[in-house]
Design goal:
The protein is of the alpha/beta class. It has helices spanning 4-59, 96-110, 122-130, 148-163, 215-297; strands at 80-86, 115-120, 137-139, 167-177, 183-191. Helix content is 60%, strand content 12%. Helix 1 (4-59) runs antiparallel to helix 5 and helix 4 (148-163) packs across helix 5 (215-297).
Length: 300
């Protein structure tokens, strides 16, 4: 059994670790709240963009555009499949990164032909580097600070590859915060869009809308903004889920540290009690020995 000094040193070490986990919990909470506020400020604009795309399809259900599946629902076979994988820069977030990597792997294995990876986050970059999996483009800025400008840069790279015909489909794998408490990894198609995504059963008064110079050119201009908004939302959702996962991991670590402290405190009390008992026993034995020696000294 360890001595009092060793147990006290262990308790001090655990207490220092607990302070770190509690601080990381608070930092993750503040970052998540800030990111949510940024998304809430921009969400109304992109909701309006989505509403306008729906309006276009209500006006002309048979409109053709390169960003949508054709009316017959078929796509040419040439071209590669792109996959944008959104991971974190750091660990200490439970199974957050592993779940994203696993979902991306399952998606890629299902797709035929050539695949091209686009990665956000240092964890994903290092994972694919260690496993010798080629990355078409790694967005080197940190995943810790999702911004609209960075989402536009990502959308521009993906759109260039799609418009040139290099990519026939583009998917994104990210983590979605479903209800503010529970997160879920999602693998969804970015391009091309399916018409059902913008269909609406909403009944509104009949109104004539004009699109200049044409519906197709309006869609060509509005889709990049919508795609940027979708990617920005995915980046923020992923970042919030990462911070939420880190909060859960740090909270569990803090509770485990407290449990360990309780056990160490109990162990320390036992060691102290044993030491006190031993001292009392030694004193009692010494006193008894002295009494015996004193008794023997009086015999003549």
């Amino acid at each position: 059994m360890s001595g009092v000094k060793e147990i006290k040193a262990h308790i001090a070490s655990v207490q220092d670790t607990q302070k770190i986990t509690e601080a990381m919990y608070l930092i993750a909470s503040a970052k998540m709240r800030k990111a949510k506020e940024g998304l809430d400020r921009t969400r109304p604009y992109f909701n309006a963009v989505q509403a306008e795309i729906k309006r276009i399809f209500r006006t002309d259900e048979r409109v053709e555009n390169r960003y949508f599946y054709p009316l017959e629902g078929r796509l040419p076979d040439e071209g590669a499949v792109g996959c944008l994988v959104v991971t974190a820069d750091k660990g200490l977030a439970g199974a957050y990164n592993q779940n994203v990597i696993k979902a991306a792997k399952e998606l890629i294995e299902k797709k035929r032909g050539e695949k091209e990876l686009f990665v956000v986050g240092e964890y994903g970059r290092q994972y694919y580097k260690r496993h010798n999996i080629p990355i078409q483009r790694s967005f080197l800025y940190t995943a810790q600070n999702p911004t609209m400008q960075r989402a536009r840069e990502i959308a521009s790279v993906l759109l260039d590859a799609y418009n040139s015909g290099k990519l026939k489909k583009i998917y994104i794998v990210y983590t979605d915060m479903k209800n503010g408490l529970k997160s879920e990894v999602r693998a969804t198609r970015l391009l091309p869009f399916h018409r059902a995504q913008f269909s609406s059963d909403h009944k509104e008064e009949h109104a004539e809308f004009g699109f200049e110079p044409s519906i197709g050119e309006v869609l060509d201009n509005i889709i990049p903004s919508y795609l940027s908004g979708f990617i920005y939302s995915a980046l923020v959702d992923s970042f919030c889920c990462e911070q939420n996962a880190r909060m859960e991991a740090m909270d569990a670590a803090s509770r485990n540290a407290q449990k360990l402290l309780d056990e160490l405190s109990l162990q320390l009390n036992h060691v102290r009690q044993g030491a006190i008992t031993q001292e009392i026993t030694e004193i009692s034995s010494g006193a008894q020995a002295q009494r015996r020696n004193a008794g023997e000294g009086t015999i003549t």
